[in-house]
Amino acid sequence: MAGKTYPKPKSPQEYLVQGCDRPWEVEIAPFRVSPNVYYVGNNWVGGYLIRTDEGLMLIDTTMHAQIYLLLESIRQLGFDPRDIKMILVTHGHYDHHGGVRPIAEYTGAKVFFPKEDEYMLTEQPELQFTLGYACGEFEIDEYYADNKPITLGHVTVHTVHTPGHTAGTTSMFIEDRDENGKSFVVGLHGGVGLGSVTDAYFEEYGQPKSLQDDYLASLHKLRGRKVDIAVALHPSHLGMFEKIGEDRLDFTPFHDPSVWEAFIDHRIKLFEDMKAAS
Ligand SMILES: [Zn+2]
What is the CATH number of the domain that holds 239? Predict the structure, then answer.
């Protein structure tokens, strides 16, 4: 981390301010999580780069002010960011889509976005939580559909609509394989934060409270999936940084088929605790 340590923010809002005002303070070197999937985000919010034999895919972009870190991470791994052919956005919050505009313009990549979150870009932009930071409008090229996997080269991403955190939150399951043909499913929940499913949030922003039921139903929907390697949009949710080995390209510390279910169960418990306390 550039050999320096910085004060750790105490809330998502503080993280956002730090990450936008002083992005160098959230820098983290990239690392590999599966044969062809790399973490290229920062120490607060993730971006996942998928290498295929027909170019690169990027899941989430981090924030506008942070894209120089993301592009630098991609180059450090030996890839050319201009080979990004597709940008997949998990949901309509700024920390995930804030870099779409410049990256799409730079690469000409096709932008995938959840249809149910489009109103956050148009009718209710306050729901993106940009806190006034630069964003930039972008065109959506395609919406997700559960029955329409996204394929580039030898890699396929299955998307699953998992509303709750936002109406369009989309989880992703990447079918990856190593050079010997051994396959690995990488699982990524599209948004687990509870801040946008509280009673107070629904009241303040006029969102339907049914999203709470959706949140829980989505977790149950994902629970039984077979996932070899679980990763998170906010890596701290899975203690990912503690797992990085000396060789940052060694993905084996992340290969643990028991992690996914434990993660989902933990999120169910956190949600139920929140409900019980309200
Ligand atoms: Zn979010």
Answer: 3.60.15.10
- Determine the distance separating the centroid of ligand 1 and the alpha carbon of 16, expressed in angstroms: 12
Gap between the Cα atoms of 111 and 85, Å rounded: 9
Amino acid at 136: G
Q: Domain total for the chain?
A: 1
Measure 91 CA to ligand 1 centroid, in angstroms. Answer: 7
Distance 50 CA to ligand 1 centre (A): 21
CA of 178 to the centre of ligand 1 (A): 31
Q: Please list the ranges in the chain whose pLDDT falls under 70.
A: 1-3
Residue 179 Cα to ligand 1 middle (Å): 34
State the distance from the centre of ligand 1 to the C-alpha of 247, rounded, in angstroms. Answer: 30
Give a yes or no: residue 208 inside a domain: yes
Q: Which two tokens stand for residue 170?
A: 């989309």
Judge whether 7 lies within some domain: no
> How far apart are the C-alpha atoms of 111 and 113, rounded to whole Å?
7
Beta bridge partners of 177: 183
Identify whether 202 is part of a domain: yes
The model carries a pTM of 0.96
Domain with 103, as residue range(s), is: 12-277
Distance CA 115, CA 143 (A): 5
Tell me the β-bridge partners of 152: 155
| Contact by Cβ (8 Å): 155, 50 | yes
Rounded to whole angstroms, how far apart are CA atoms 61 and 48?
8
100-130 pLDDT tens trace:
999 999 999 999 999 999 999 999 999 999 9
CA of 93 to the centre of ligand 1 (A): 5
Interval between CA 51 and ligand 1 midpoint (Å): 25
